[in-house]
Specification:
Order of helices and strands of chain A: HHHHHHHHHHH
Distance between the termini of chain A: 46 Å
Oligomer: heterodimer
CATH architecture of the largest domain in chain B: 3-Layer(aba) Sandwich
Strand content of chain A: under 5%
Strand content of chain B: 25-35%
Structural class of chain B: alpha+beta
Number of helices of chain A: 11
Structural class of chain A: mainly alpha
Distance between the termini of chain B: 64 Å
Strand order of the largest sheet of chain B: 6-7-8-3-9-10
CATH superfamily of chain A: MetI-like
Radius of gyration of chain B: 25 Å
Shape of chain A: globular
Radius of gyration of chain A: 23 Å
CATH architecture of chain A: Orthogonal Bundle
CATH class of the largest domain in chain B: Alpha Beta
Helix content of chain B: 25-40%
Largest sheet of chain B: 6 strands, mixed
Number of strands of chain B: 21
Largest sheet of chain A: none
Chain lengths: ~260, ~375
């Protein structure tokens, strides 16, 4: 009897936690479809805020920036992180110690520290060479730096999960170094690569702090636009943007999860 | 002309891996393995191979036998090209391949863990080596069907790797290596992960495959029974050094030293304290031995002994007491006491009297069954 009560209590706690996490999101989604101008009351379902978004040049350019930033930084991070992950795997028996810590550090470092450092660095480089004018380019570099460790770790853990004899079997079965990469390594870690790509994409779309410090005047992303817009008060338009972002990130996160779980058949 | 057609027709009606054709025969004759002075160490201190000279004949089923850490797997990996020797030469079919990388050697390996690619189907696994060598898809498929028929894989070919049992994986791994028709097939304890029944079944199957193809097989195992069943010749290794090379009977019946004797399962080893002509003195007493050889350790194989009831006097007749008897159905194993010394004997159960524990018996042995060897 007591066990049952406990079980019910825990179930209730579970739903309460979910509500705590998702109710605010639900409110934003709900009000993005509100017909009224004010967030004070919900007067009816309407798509007017979404229509308004489509006509807003600033929002459309922020959306495009976010997309270009997320895709290009993820692709670059995938390439570099993949090589680092493989390197970590190949040298896993060596004492790498602090080198490994260097890879992990960006994950735990506060975004604000990271953002300020990147900004200061880019400013110095720009002062000295004229290169790295703040803008989409510097943002891509900054995003790649925080995406790399995640990609490297995902790729590394996929390699560690493999029977090491497979590498030898590929050699034994006449695969040259290039063919081993094309016909064995890449297909074997493909699920990990796809998962890492979507995770990087999510992290990039998600990021405000680092983008804020490394952006130029023309390269506002959606989070930066929202930040600017809410100074004038939360308009229902912001709810619509937020809802679209929730959708995009949720899809990317689910894809990342699906591919990280999928064992190659 | 007619003969050619007939031969083709026969070949077509009995599809076999084309290693069995006349050209294949000639090629195989040239696939003997020669190793000269192979050395390998890991780190500064661990010596894996300490000067191995060995010739393996073409078409031979050759076994590298020894305890773990004896260097047998290292030697196999050097043959495969997966490990590089620090010193020494390696040639297959007269061609020096010491420096040739594994993907350019006509050598394939059946790995202990089978190492089937998880991202590929069974068929793609089987075709992998052919694909890497640039064979066209249609030809690959034909080869895979041929080998699947030869190894009797049946519908396994269309399954996923994760749907296979251990024994099935083992056979796929064997087929994947065989389909490439290498000069030499290497097998790294391929049966050790299987249960006893399946293991002996696959031993027989492997042996038949090797005899039919006439391919050179180099087999690694730590199981002396398996080595004796399978091999044309065995090399016993210890500490990176070959102790003895020979056919199973020779290695079992005439081990050259105490290590080989113990590894082949012999316990009856007695130091020879005095020697006069053909007569040896040991803790058991005095024994006549013909052609016993050099060395001051006497080996008495348990199955060469006979037990007579009671005390019987005579040459090579030793009085003993039965201390223990293990009845095994087809035979019985005895632990006998002769003074303070124990002696193992095995008696075939041919419906005769099997002495009981505590019985006084006389042990007899023929002089030509006694072997001496060095420590």
């Amino acid at each position: 009897m007591r066990k049952r009560t406990l079980h019910r209590g825990l179930t209730a706690f579970w739903w309460a936690t979910l509500a705590f996490l998702y109710l605010p999101l639900a409110v934003v989604v709900l009000f993005s479809f509100n017909a009224a101008n004010s967030a004070a009351s919900f007067t009816g379902v309407s798509l007017r805020w979404y229509h308004q978004l489509m006509g807003n040049e600033e929002i459309l350019s922020a959306f495009a920036n976010s997309l270009v930033l997320a895709i290009s930084s993820s692709v670059i991070a995938l390439g570099i992180g993949c090589l680092i992950g493989y390197g970590m795997y190949r040298h896993r028996h060596r004492k790498l110690g602090w080198l490994i810590v260097l890879i992990y550090l960006p994950i735990v470092l506060p975004d604000i520290v990271f953002g300020i450092s990147e900004m200061a660095f880019f400013v110095q480089i720009h002062r000295l060479t004229g290169l790295l004018q703040p803008g989409l380019g510097t943002m891509i570099i900054a995003h790649v730096t925080f995406q790399i460790p995640f990609v490297a770790l995902i790729v590394y853990s996929r390699f560690v999960g493999l029977d090491p004899t497979l590498f030898e079997a590929a050699k034994d079965l006449y695969a040259s170094p290039v063919k081993r990469v094309v016909h064995f390594m890449l297909p074997t870690i493909k699920p990990a690569l796809i998962s890492a790509f979507f995770l990087s994409f999510t992290l990039s779309v998600d990021d405000f702090v680092i983008s804020f410090f490394t952006a130029g005047p023309e390269s506002a992303t959606l989070p930066i636009y929202i930040w600017g817009a809410i100074k004038k008060g939360v308009s229902p338009e912001i709810n619509a943007i937020a809802t679209l972002m929730i959708g995009a990130v949720a899809i990317a996160a689910i894809m990342s999860l699906l591919f990280s779980r999928r064992r190659p058949a | 002309m007619n003969e050619t057609i007939t031969a083709d027709a026969v070949a077509a009606s009995h599809p076999r891996p084309s290693g069995a054709t006349a050209e294949g025969e000639a090629a195989r004759q040239a696939s003997a393995i020669e190793m000269q002075g192979l050395h390998k160490r890991f780190g500064r201190t661990t010596v894996a191979l300490d000067g191995v000279d060995l010739t393996i004949e073409a078409g031979e089923f050759f076994t590298l036998l020894g305890p773990s850490g004896c260097g047998k797997t290292t030697l196999l990996r050097i043959l495969a090209g997966l490990e590089e020797a620090d010193d020494g030469r390696l040639a297959i079919g007269g061609r020096d391949i010491t420096e040739v990388p594994p993907h350019r050697r006509s050598v394939n390996t059946v790995f202990q863990s089978y190492a089937l690619f998880p991202h590929l189907s069974v068929r793609e696994n089987l075709a992998f080596g052919l694909k890497m060598r640039g064979m066209a898809a249609a030809a690959r498929n034909a080869k895979v069907d041929e080998i699947a028929d030869f190894i009797k894989l049946g519908d396994l070919v269309d399954r996923r790797v994760d749907q296979l049992s251990g024994g099935q994986r083992q056979r796929i791994a064997l087929a994947r290596a065989l389909v490439c028709e290498p000069d030499v097939l290497l097998l790294d304890e391929p049966l050790s992960a299987l249960d006893a029944g399946l293991r002996s079944q696959l031993q027989v199957e492997l042996l038949r495959v090797q005899k039919r193809l006439g391919m050179t097989f180099v087999f690694v195992t730590h199981d002396q029974q398996e080595a004796m069943v399978m091999s044309d010749r065995i090399a016993v290794l210890n500490g990176g050094v070959i102790q003895q090379v020979g056919p199973p009977r020779e290695v079992y019946e005439r081990p050259v030293n105490a290590f080989v004797a113990r590894f082949m399962g012999h316990d009856n080893l007695y130091p020879v304290t005095a020697r006069q002509g053909g007569r040896l003195t040991t803790a058991l007493g005095e024994l006549a031995a013909e052609e016993a050889g050099e060395g001051d350790l006497l080996l008495i194989r348990p199955e060469t002994l006979d037990l007579l009831p009671g005390e019987v006097a005579g040459d090579n007749h030793l009085p003993a007491v039965v201390a223990e008897r293990l009845y095994r159905g087809s035979h019985a194993e005895y632990r006998l006491e002769i003074g303070d010394t124990t002696l193992q004997a095995t008696l075939n159960n041919r419906g005769r009297h099997l002495p009981e524990v505590g019985d006084r018996v006389t042990v007899t042995v023929a002089p030509d069954d006694l072997v001496t060897l060095s420590e």
